[in-house]
Amino acid sequence: MPAVGHVVKTLVVKIPTPPGTTPVEYQCAVTGVEERPTRQTVTSQVACPDGSLTDVGTPTYELVIGLNVDWNAGSLYRLLRDNDNVDGTVTVEWDPIGAPGVTVDYEVTLVDPGANAQVGAFAVATATLPVRGYPTITDPAP
After folding, report:
1. Once rounded to an integer, what is the mean pLDDT over residues 13-37?
2. How far apart are CA 123 and CA 19, in angstroms?
3. pTM higher than 0.85 for the full model?
4. Burial 39-59 (b: 16+ CB within 10 A, else e)
5. What fold characterizes domain 8-133?
6. CB 57 within 8 A of CB 43
């Protein structure tokens, strides 16, 4: 059986700055990206032998981006903070070791991530961006 999964070598996050313009790469600020699908589940108790019926709804997504905080203009942190509640597109390029990477586009609403600044440590933030619709996956060219 072939190996399943890949170690991520690099992660490129591109966001148009301002939204609607040419994307800027922010991978040097990004510490990680997580795609979170959530599904609503409805269960009905019934009198049949199994006792219940369950329906699983359509997924909704959030894109969670961990980042180092840079308060300077033009940084990823400032882009998110200065464009709170603005619609945009985030492109993530997954570049795994030993395999060509795929690109995933997310239509999101940008949000202010806040900041966690502690003495003796990098200031960090987590942006949880609501995704409109489904992420679009593009396979690498052969």
Report:
1. 77
2. 25
3. no
4. eeeeeeeeeeeeeeeeeeeee
5. Pnp Oxidase; Chain A (2.30.110)
6. no
